[in-house]
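Note to self: the last two entries modelled the partners one at a time, which told us nothing about the interface. This time every component goes in together.
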Amino acid sequence: MDAEAAGNSFGETRLNEYIPSPARVLETRLLTPGNRHFVLQFKDPQLRESFSFSAGQFVQTSLLGIGEAPFAICSPPTQKGTFELCVRETGNVTRALHRLAQDDTVWVRGPYGRGFPLSEMGGQNLVFIAGGIGLSPLRSAIKNAVCLEKEFGGLTVLYGARSPDQLLFRDEYEEWRQCCRLEIAVEEATPDWHGRTGLITSLFDVVDLSPIDTQVLICGPPVMFRFVLDRLQEIGFADSQIYVSLERNMRCGVGKCEHCVVESFYTCRQGPVLSIEQIRGISSALR
Amino acid sequence: MVKKAGNIFPGSTLPPELRRWLMDLSSDYRVLVPSYKAGNRIFEDVSPLGLTGVDLPQSRTVIPFKKALLPPSETLFSFEGGSLLQDLHAEDTILFGLHVCELSADRLLATVMENDRPDFPFMERRRRTITIGVPCERTEGCFCEKTGHDHVGPGDFDLFLVPASMGASNGDLRMIVGTEAGARLVAGAPVSVLEEPAGISAPPGEESGNEIRWPLAALPEKIRQSMGAVMWDELADRCLGCGNCTIVCPLCYCFYTRDETGLDPTAGHRLRHWDSCQLIGFARVAGGHNFREARSERIWYRFSHKFMRMQETFDRAGCSGCGACFHFCPAAIDPRQVIKSVLEVTDGR
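The predicted structure of the combined assembly is written out below.
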C-alpha cells in the first residue's frame, strides 16, 4: 500500500523508540521506607546480552495500564545480564512499582542520555557527592570505579541523607570502604546514630579535597547543588572537573517531547550528566 | 493592504475536475483538503462521496496540517493480558492545499522529528504522505517573510499548483513536480505538468523593503540575553496560559504519554497527546518540583524554542509566520510585537 507514497523525500525509519521490552523482576526489596530496589532481567535473551550502558544513563520503565517514568540505572555497567533500579515512591508509576513482587514483569526501554565519562577519567582521583536518592546513579559509577579500582587514583564518597533510616544500600558500605573513603552525614540524627550529623557540606571539613588530578561526580536534589558547588569552587575545582546529573521531566528519552529541555539542551540527550563547564551561564540548570 | 497575487480559482472554489480527482483518490488515500465546516476553516477528510466548501487560497485553518502527521491523540501501542501489540495507525495520505509557509513548516517539522533519534510514528506517516501545494494570497496577520518561511524549493513539496505569478491563468491547471512520488500521482491528474522543476515564493506581504526579515541569525543570542527581562513579565500579565498558541502552531509538536484502560486494567493502550509548554505542569517532576513555575518563564521558553534552539540546531526559525497563534490568542499576543520587544531590550547588546 505504501508503495504509492514512496518516492517522496523520506525513507523508512527502522526503530520505534517508544516500544518497551519486557523484563522480569528477579529480586526486589525495600531499602528504606519509600525506596525500593529492583534487580531486573530482560526476558529476551538476545537483548539481555546486547544491553549495555554507562553509569549515569537512565531507562524508561513502565507498567502497562499505569504509565512510564525515567529511572537511573543503579548497577554498574560491568554487571552483565541483569541491571538494577532504585525507585522512590513519589507518584502513580512509582507507587505501582512498589507493589511488585519477584517474577512480575516491568517494561523497559533505553538506555538513554549520557552518563558519567568514567572512561575519560583514568588515573584521576574521583570524588562522588550524593544527596538522598542521588546515590542511585552514583552507585552505578561507584561500583564501576571500585571494579576498575586500579585505573583510578583515590576514590572518595560523600553522602548526605535526611536521617539514618533513609540511607540507601547500607549493607554495601563495608565493601565500598575496601577501596573507597566513604563519609556520611545525616541531617536529623536518631539515638542509634553514631555518625556525623549535619548537611552534606559539613563533610568538606572532614575530608581534605584537592583539585589536583581530581574529578567530581554529583547527584542530589537541586537545593544541594549550589552549596556543594560553592565549596568545590572555594577549594579551587574548575568547572570542567565537576559533573552533575540533572533531574527533569524526561518523557520520551529521545529529544522529541520537549519536557526535559533546559534552555538549549535536552536533559535526556545531552544530559542527564553534564559538566559544570557545559552548563556555565545557564542559570536555570542548577535550580 | 494585502497585495493580491491573483486567484487562479475564481470564487475560491476548487475546479470540478480537481474536485473529482481528489474524490477519486480518496478511495486509495486519506485525502485532506482545506474546507469550511461550521464557519471554521479546517483540513477536512475527503470522502469518495464528496467534499464540502473548499476554500483554497485564503485564510488559515484552525488546526494546522500537523494533525495528519502527529495526531492530537494517538495509540503508540496496545496491550492485553501482559502482551504488547504494535498497531500504528499510518495510512497513505495526500495533504492538498498547503501554502508555502505550511510546506516550509512541514519540511522543518519533519527535519526535527527525523533528527538524532527519529520519531517512528511521525516518520511512518510522513513517509506515506504526499503534499500538494497551492498558491496563497496571504492572510491577514501573516508574516512568513519575517521568519524565512516564504520560499520552498522543489524537494519541499511533491506537487504544487502553478500560481498566477508564474503565468497560470483562470482554468489553466498546471502543476510543478517536486518528487518522484509527485510525478507518479500527477500522471492521473487533470492537470498539465510544468516541465521545469521550480521553487515557489509566497507573494509579498504588507510591508516591503530589505529590512522585512527578522535578523534570524542574531536572534538566538538576543533571546538568550532577554531572559528575565521585564518584557516577559508584562507578557505574563496578559497571557492566560491556555496553550491555544501551541495547539494552532504548525511547528509545535510536544507531547505527553499516558496509559488508558477500561474496566479490565490489563487491557488498554499507551496514548500520546499533544501537550503545551504553556501549561503550568509541563516541567513538573514527580514529587512536585516545578522547573518552570512562572508563566513568564514559560513564555520565554516558547519563544526561545522557536527563535533560539530551532535556529541554532536547524538554522531555521521554528515559526512559519502563519500568524495563527496571534489570531487565536484570547489575549491577542502578537509574536511580531514580542520579537520587536526582544530586539528593543537587547538593542546595542
